[in-house]
Amino acid sequence: MLVRVNGGKVARVSVHLAMAIGNLVEVSHLMLHGGVSIQFGCMKCLIDTQGGQCFTRTIRNFQYKTLEQLKAPLPVGVKHVFNIKGPSMFTTLKSFPANPSFYGLNTLHLLSIGLAKHLYELLSSPFHPSKFDNRYKPSIEELKEAKLDKASAWPYTFDLDPKVLAKIGQYVAQSKKTVPTTFNAPFNDIFAPGGVTNYRAVDYEEFMIFIVPALIAPHYPDSIRKPLLGIVKVAALVLQKNELHASDLQFIEAKVNDWHKLLITEIKAKRLPIKTFRPNAHYLGHLTYMIKAQGLPASTSSRSIERSIGRYKRLISARTDVGIHAGNIIDRLAIMRAIKASTTGDGTGDGKDKLNDLDARINLLVPQRYDPTTFVNLKNDDDNGSQLWYPVIHTTVSSIPTSININIRLFVKAIQSYYDRQYSTNVLQDVHINDQLDIVVSGSAWAYNCTYRSEYYRDLTGANSRGSHYIMVWAEYLSYVNSQAHYCLYRYSSKPILASEFPKLEIEGIGDELFLLIRLGKTHAVDDKDKTMPIVELDDD
User: Fold this and answer.
1) d(Cα 494, Cα 471) in Å, to the nearest integer?
2) Does pLDDT of 537 surpass 70?
3) Do the Cβ atoms of 103 and 31 come closer than 8 Å?
4) How confident is the model at residue 227, as a pLDDT?
5) CA-to-CA distance for 265 and 157, rounded, in angstroms?
């Protein structure tokens, strides 16, 4: 491939096809695989499904297909060998590996649709028994033996009181106004009629990672809760964009195995139908194999491509010159986003609109200037470049506006404790920390390469959107039980964690200090089962 810019050659590169990825059906077509409905129904291994979608026979120690089996031509009169209809076009490539890892597992279809949507169907089945047919159908003889008069009374693994599910759905709907916009799901009543209508893959994914462990898993006994939390944690690990270590792969393999054992045990006990163990559940067992061969699933996922295709596909209306039309749409959307992000006020607070100025109209895309009234630089912080942003109030601790809702006594006490821990007695000997300290309070700030906005900023500006008001914080504190404890306050809980104001104390000999006031939370009920679950519940006390 030759790369040119303005007619000039920039680089010449050789391009190698590294992977074929997509949903399982389309990838199986590219592989010339016969599908899941006949013997050897897996694209990766030689599990004998014996003419049906029965993947429960082997869940460990997979025997993977070899290069010879993938490239072998079909004998005359034979339709397929090991469910392979012949060598695909990819097997002739130099980049084709000696194993089936070339045919990837896309997390969007494997986890977001395959696992997450299936979990929703399994967990919501007690609320919608007719819609999601996931229950075992006992025969008349089995009903008589169990002394039951109807099939709906047959035990079901994921059975929950419909009233509990209805309450959970209400909790989710009530949190909609305070959930950050970084979440994709609509956060409506997911168990109400039409609650998941038009749900996308990312919506089911957030249901699985956040709602299941926080609100649903605590209602199950340990025999179900632990495998359920384990498979949710596996999904969270695989979907992350950070590196995975050998211990993570061992964890993934162990938790997937626990999930498989739960399904197989319940199928044998006739509390779940055999169709519950879908081919997708089997492919979860190949996750570590694919990660070792192809790296992080997030780096090979087609998620961004699918999202872009879906967005621009709805906007393209041309029947001819479709490529040119698509390029014009991309340019138009980029310009509209830039204009929307540009400020319209002049910073004086008198409501004057800069768009009335012809020059401002012409230079909409030029970065707007700031003045000393819109920000405050922190002294002695040149390395980080931290700033306090609008609104900025210069006052004393005792004169902090009541609208900020800070307990002055507790605030002063906390500041005293902080400085006692951070600085020596010699530094603090001439410092008197009381409610007469000069302080600068702001509603927003720039610190550590992040922008923060607070409740005070939201109330003052009327910005009632869900975004930019909630943060993730690591807090260290001394514990009576442990010498030191670390808790992660995550962005989702039954009630959100709110960021509050940003005081800046100026003490001679110490310099500026930037403080972030937040409301802390207590750990969720699943904490006793999995200490790594990043879920908290807001403490109202």
Assistant:
1) 15
2) no
3) yes
4) 94
5) 10
